[in-house]
Design brief:
372 residues, alpha/beta, 16% strand, globular, binds pyridoxal-5'-phosphate
Length: 372
C-alpha cells in the first residue's frame, strides 16, 4: 500500500497520498477531516455523480448546489461566490469529464472567505492545470479507481494533500480512528493501539495496490490516446467553438460554420494551459431529440451514456433538502442535451471512425425529421 501511495504522490507532485477503498470513501474522508458537520454548508456542483454531494450529507452537512458554466459544465466560480453564506465551510469542485476546474480562481475565493477547497478529481487523474498535475491543485483531491475510470484497482480510491495535519487525520479516519495498524503493531512487537477518534474501515488491500502501481505506469499513454480520440471527435463535433479565453470561458462564434453538424457540439473548449484527462466525451444535441438519438445509437451498438442527471433533481435531494428544477438552470438544460460518446484507450481509429459515422447518420436523420 505504501508503495502505491508513494508512486501516486510522486505522479501528482503531492506531498501525501492516502489510499482508500473507493472514491466515495475518499470524499467522505475529506469531508470528515475538513471538519464538516451539522449546520455546515458545502458548495457543490450538480453536474456530477451523486457521491460528490452525498459525502457532505454523510457528515450531517448540507450540500448547496451551485450552477455550472454552460461551455464546459464546470462549477461557475462567480456563482460560487454568490452562494457563500455565514454557514459555508467549503467548496467541492468536480473536474467534469476530465477537465480541471479553474483552481487559481477557486482558491482565491476559498482564501478570501476562509473556506476549504476539495477537488473531486475522479475524472481528471492524469490531467494538469497550468503545468501543475491534478492532485496538487486543492487542499485535498479525491480519486476513484473504479473500473470505469481512467485507471483502476478494481475498486479503490485516493486522497492527496499537501497538509501534514490532514494526512494524519485521513489515515486515522480510514482505519477505525486507530493509531497503529496491524502491521505497525507486529513490527513494534506491541499490542498497544489507541482509538483517538471515530473512524471507518475504508482500507484498500495490497492486491488492489499492486494493480494500481502497474496501472499508474500506463496512465500517461492512456491519457494521450484519450486525447487523440477526443481530438478526432473535436474535428467533427467541435466546429461551433472558435476560441477560448485564458480563464477557461469559451468565445463561441456567432453562427455555426455552414457544414457543422447543426446544433450538435462538444461541450468542452478549453485553454491549452490545461491537460484534459478526457474521461468522458460529452456532446450536446437538441433536447427534443436526445432520447431518440440516444436509443438509435444504442440500437446500432454504440455504447453511449448520459452524464449526469443533475444531483439536485434526484428524489432523495428533493425530499430531504427541498431542491427542485430551476435551482441550477444551466446544468438542467445541459443535461437535457447531453450524450457521452464512447472514449477509452483501446479504441482503434476504425472504432472512432465508426462512432463518428453512426453519430452523423443518426443525428442527420433526426435533424431532418426535426426541421420538416
Ligand atoms: C466515480 C466517481 C465517484 C465515486 O467513486 P467510487 O469509487 O465509485 O465510489 C465520485 N465522484 C465522481 C465525479 C466520480 O466520477
Amino acid at each position: 500500500m505504501e508503495e502505491f501511495e508513494q508512486a501516486f504522490a510522486d505522479f501528482c507532485c503531492a506531498k501525501h497520498a492516502i489510499a482508500v477503498s473507493n472514491g466515495t470513501a475518499a470524499l467522505h474522508c475529506a469531508m470528515s477531516v475538513a471538519g464538516v458537520g451539522p449546520g455546515d454548508e458545502v458548495l457543490v456542483t450538480p453536474m456530477s455523480f451523486a457521491a460528490s454531494a452525498n459525502c457532505v450529507v454523510f457528515q450531517g452537512g448540507t450540500p448547496v448546489f451551485v450552477d455550472v458554466n454552460d461551455d464546459n459544465l464546470l462549477i461557475d466560480p462567480d456563482k460560487v461566490e454568490q452562494n457563500i453564506t455565514r454557514k459555508t465551510k467549503g467548496i467541492i469542485a468536480v473536474d467534469y469529464a476530465g477537465l480541471p476546474c479553474d483552481y487559481d480562481y477557486l482558491q482565491r475565493i476559498a482564501d478570501k472567505y476562509g473556506l476549504f477547497l476539495v477537488a473531486d478529481a475522479c475524472h481528471s487523474v492524469g490531467g494538469s492545470y497550468k503545468g501543475r498535475p491534478v492532485g496538487s491543485l486543492a487542499d485535498m483531491s479525491t480519486f476513484s479507481f473504479h473500473p470505469v475510470k481512467n485507471m483502476t484497482t478494481g475498486e479503490g480510491g485516493m486522497i492527496t494533500t499537501e497538509s501534514d495535519e490532514y494526512a494524519a487525520k485521513l489515515r486515522l479516519f480510514r482505519s477505525h480512528g486507530i493509531t497503529a495498524d496491524f502491521r505497525q503493531r507486529m513490527e513494534s512487537g506491541s499490542w498497544i493501539y489507541e482509538m483517538t477518534g471515530l473512524g471507518w474501515n475504508y482500507r484498500i488491500t495490497d492486491i488492489q495496490c499492486a494493480l494500481g502501481i502497474t496501472q499508474l505506469k500506463k496512465l500517461p499513454d492512456w491519457i494521450q490516446r484519450r486525447n487523440e480520440i477526443a481530438g478526432r471527435y473535436d474535428e467533427v463535433f467541435g466546429q461551433e467553438c472558435t476560441g477560448v479565453s485564458e480563464c477557461g470561458r469559451s468565445v463561441r462564434s456567432a453562427s455555426p460554420t455552414p457544414n457543422s453538424l447543426y446544433t450538435l457540439k462538444s461541450t468542452l473548449p478549453y485553454p491549452d494551459t490545461l491537460t484534459h484527462a478526457r474521461h468522458l466525451y460529452p456532446i450536446r444535441v437538441p433536447a427534443m431529440r436526445r432520447a431518440s438519438i440516444f436509443s438509435a445509437l444504442r440500437e446500432v451498438g454504440i455504447g453511449v451514456n448520459v452524464h449526469y442527471i443533475p444531483i439536485h433533481l434526484h428524489p432523495y435531494y428533493r425530499n430531504q433538502f427541498g431542491t427542485r428544477p430551476g435551482d441550477c438552470p444551466v446544468a438542467e438544460s445541459a443535461y437535457e442535451e447531453l450524450i457521452s460518446l464512447p472514449i477509452f484507450p483501446s479504441m482503434t481509429d476504425d472504432d472512432v471512425q465508426m462512432v463518428i459515422e453512426q453519430v452523423r447518420r443518426v443525428t442527420e436523420r433526426h435533424y431532418k425529421t426535426f426541421s420538416t
